[in-house]
Design a protein that fits this description.
This protein is α+β, with helices and mostly antiparallel strands and 191 residues long. The protein is 52% helix and 17% strand. Strand 3 and strand 4 form a beta hairpin.
C-alpha cells in the first residue's frame, strides 16, 4: 500500500468518513479508526481472517450489523466472482471459496448462481449497537490506477441522523481508546 493512501485513510477520519482498503479476494488491507468502530476492528484479527467475505459469512455479528445482510452477502459473492474472473488460477481465492462453501449454505447457494458484481458506488445501512441506524453512501476508488486495491469511502449526508451517528461513534471510539490507553497506566501508577 502506498503511504499516501494510508495517509488518506487517516485524513478521512477527520471528516467523519469511515474508509478501508480492500485487496484481492476482498482482503481488508487497512482501515481508518472510524471504519474499525463502525464495522469491525480488523487489525485485531489474525492476518488470515482479515477478509470482508469471511466477516460477512462467518462472523455472527455481521448478520446483526448489516441492516440488509442478505443483499450485502449476495453482493459480496458477486464481488468474489468478479475476482475469480480476473484471477482464475489464484489458489488463495480457491481456498477462501472452499472455506466459505463448507461453512455457509447461503454462500454455497449464491456462488453456484455465477452472478458477477463490481463494487463502484451505492448505499449501505447498518444497525450499530452503540449509535443505532446509520446509512452511508460509498465510492470505490483505485489508488494509482491499481485494480487490485480499492479504497472504499463512506459518507453520510451532512446534518442527517447518520452524520450525527458517525460523529457520535467517532467520539465514543476515541473515548474508549483513551480509556484503554490511560487505564493500564493509571492502574500501574496505583501499584
Amino acid at each position: 500500500m502506498r503511504p499516501e493512501t494510508l495517509d488518506l485513510l487517516e485524513r478521512l477520519d477527520l471528516v467523519f468518513s469511515p474508509a478501508f482498503i480492500l485487496g484481492r479476494r476482498l482482503d481488508v488491507l487497512a482501515h481508518n479508526r472510524l471504519a474499525g468502530a463502525l464495522i469491525a476492528e480488523f487489525r485485531s484479527m489474525p492476518a488470515a481472517q482479515r477478509n470482508q467475505a469471511r466477516f460477512v459469512f462467518l462472523e455472527p455479528h455481521a448478520r446483526e450489523l448489516y441492516a440488509d445482510w442478505r443483499q450485502v452477502a449476495v453482493d459480496t459473492v458477486g464481488m468474489l466472482r468478479h475476482e475469480a474472473g480476473r484471477h482464475p488460477d489464484d489458489p488463495k481465492l480457491s481456498t477462501l471459496v472452499g472455506e466459505l462453501s463448507i461453512h455457509s449454505d447461503e454462500f454455497r447457494t449464491w456462488w453456484s448462481r455465477h452472478d458477477v458484481q463490481r463494487r463502484t458506488t451505492g448505499t449501505k445501512s447498518y444497525h450499530h449497537p452503540v449509535v443505532g441506524d446509520v446509512t452511508v453512501t460509498y465510492q470505490a476508488l483505485h489508488p494509482g490506477g491499481d485494480e487490485d486495491q480499492s479504497v472504499i469511502v463512506y459518507t453520510a449526508e451532512a446534518g442527517s441522523s447518520s452524520d450525527t451517528a458517525l460523529r457520535l461513534l467517532a467520539n465514543w471510539h476515541q473515548d474508549r481508546t483513551h480509556e484503554s490507553v490511560d487505564g493500564p497506566s493509571a492502574e500501574s501508577a496505583r501499584r
